[in-house]
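We modelled the chain as a single entity of 308 amino acids. Its sequence is:
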Amino acid sequence: DRHAAQTPQGGHDWNDAHQRGELTEKHQETYRYHGDLLLAPTAMAKALLIYKRREQREFWFEFKRQLWWWKLDMDAFDRALRADGLDGEDQRQIDPALRDAALEQSGSVKRICTCFPTALYYQANAVTDESWYYYRVEFPDGRPPIKNTFSGGQLASASEYKKRLLGIAPGAVWTGTSQQLDSLLQDQIGNIKTVETIDFIGYSKEHGAYVFGDLAVAGGKVVPINSEDFFELGPRRQLKTLSQSVALHINPDRKAFSTEWTQQLLGRVWLPGRGGIGVLDGQPAGRADPRRDGQLPVFGDRWRSGRG
């Protein structure tokens, strides 16, 4: 088959689909549809594929990491059909080639955002009663995506959404309407997951977990931070720290633990010995007072030599 087959986003690959019995003809039709979407050469071609599957007159869609809007003018569609002598016929009974031609004449696509913002989750702090929507913004030029928050107020209108997007994503411009934004939000945040937040680094009694910069420890297990910047501690237990004041670099590899640094530390300490002879860097220091040579700090009368 010349068309690519693509599994829908769901966290599993072809082998998983085979084990789940999801490689039937019906499933393969869906996979080919997703492959066609992936290979669509233009925004119009992708919009037509989506319309023929949904038959929805208006919708948003992503193409090459930008947001686009499809709209079908039904009056123009009817005129195109009448021009071909197909007035009043059911769309499903029309020759596919004639139907596609009529759709191209009557449908329109318009870019409504120069990037692709995606709402990842809703994060809330029960103590401070603050909340945000955490977003990932992708760019068409291949720049690394950025992640940042939107408040409820910044999602409430197209103008506020545009301001926030300009503030966090260089070069990102929203040109859509409030109605188009509402449609986007209904699809992206309608059933969004919730992540609890804390505003400190350390142990959280409520969650039974130690939370550090890029790892957490819960139930005796080390949990690395995921690609969406939160910890999955268990079923329906997602946690995130908002603290950025302390940067910790913790090695989770237990096999890499070593006590060699203690020997290096002890080797640098001056320990007074009998007869006033001390040890410095692991070698006898004689009767010289290391304070006078600038090797150790002077502590005044509190310093005593170790005479036998």
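As a brief sanity check on the tokenised model: Residues 295-308 have pLDDT under 50 and may be disordered. Residues 25-39 form the longest helix (15 residues).
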